[in-house]
Amino acid sequence: MNLPFFLFVPEVRVRAVSLAMVGVLGFAPSSLAAQDASQICAELAEYTIGQWAEYRVTAPGMEPGTLRLALVGEEEVDGTNHLWYEMQMGSQMGPMVIQLLVPGYPYDGGEVKRAFLQMGPAPAAELPPETLAMMRQQAGGGNMSGGAIEDCERAENVGDEEVSVPAGSFDSVHLRTTEDAVYDMWVSPKVPFGVIKFVSPDRGDMVLTGSGLDAEPAIVRGM
Predict the structure, then answer these.
(1) Rounded Cα distance, 139 and 159, in Å
(2) Rounded average pLDDT over 177-183
(3) Phi, psi of 21 (to 5 degrees)
């Protein structure tokens, strides 16, 4: 999966971010247990402005960190509604916030309209057009979650399981793949972005620590 180039910094550990891209899209309520993985993954489309989910993330060779995903607003661009998608990452190096204006979720990496970045206590800054162009090139013009969705569709539906994480205990569907992207993932339609727990020997682990529907933007954009 391709990610924006400014995520490729050691303290962020891009794999931790890629964990969040594997299915964190919001599951439409339905009887997931009776479906195969491709049917489950096909429902990764429902979302609510204000939804957020926070995770504790561990990645190989790195100290544990946090990842918070949120949809924090909408904006019309050329007559089409777009979403403000925000990622907050915390590590020993300090916090980082990324805010992207995207046409939908999941979104095409070549269609990011605006991007803001804030590192630590420094003021947030909008990426200039040339930097945004580099980001699009790094993204390869492909769906930012496309590879992850393909991984998900190849997964086996292990079945219904109750899973306990710091955010609580949830009834979930357990998905597993042993192909190129090896992981186990526990999902539920009751959780914003869908993912409760993610475990991968290569990418690391991610567990839900909290969620809600009242997200406020960490970056207040200027006009």
Answers:
(1) 34
(2) 77
(3) -80, -10
> Do the Cβ atoms of 40 and 173 come closer than 8 Å?
yes
Q: Are 208 and 54 in contact (CB under 8 A)?
A: yes
More confident residue, 26 or 52: 52
Provide the residue count of the chain: 223
**Which residue is associated with the tokens 């661009």?**
77
Q: What integer pLDDT is reported at residue 173 of this predicted model?
A: 86
18, exposed or middle or buried, with CB in 10 Å at 0-12, 13-18, 19+?
buried
Q: Which of 85, 19, 93, 92 is nearest to 52 (CA)?
A: 85
Q: Encoding tokens for residue 222?
A: 């200027």
- The pLDDT confidence band at residue 45, using thresholds 50, 70 and 90, is low
Could you report how far apart the first and last alpha carbons of the chain are, in Å? 32
User: Where is 39: in which H helix or E strand?
Assistant: helix 37-42
Prior bond of 201 cis (ω within 30°): no
Strands (E), the chain: 52-58, 65-77, 80-90, 96-102, 114-119, 125-126, 156-165, 168-177, 183-187, 195-200, 204-212
Q: Is 166 exposed, middle or buried (0-12, 13-18, 19+ CB in 10 A)?
A: exposed
Q: Which tokens sit at 12?
A: 């962020």
C-alpha distances (whole Å) from 216 to each of 49, 179, 220 are 10, 38, 9
Q: What is the pLDDT of residues 62-83, one digit of tens each?
A: 788 899 999 999 999 999 999 9
